[in-house]
Design brief:
- By secondary structure, the chain is mainly alpha-helical.
- It has one domain.
- It is rod-shaped.
Length: about 70
């Protein structure tokens, strides 16, 4: 039983240390989150431009076949 209580105390202490670290360094994780959001936005923008390029290539091919 004492082993179980020691384990719970260690897990609680580790959780307290992690939350204390996050409390003092929240700006770092905010920067990571903002960077990830910009990365996703950039990926979606490139996907949209690729889709437009594919449409333009298809239109050019059709126009080349018509002439």
């Amino acid at each position: 039983m004492s082993f179980l209580l020691d384990l719970v105390a260690q897990v609680g202490g580790a959780t307290e240390h992690v939350l204390g670290y996050l409390e003092h360094h929240h700006w770092f994780f905010g920067l990571i989150a903002i960077g990830y959001i910009f990365h996703l936005h950039d990926k979606s923008l490139h996907a949209r431009f690729d889709a437009v390029d594919k449409r333009l290539e298809g239109i050019r091919r059709r126009l080349a076949c018509d002439n």
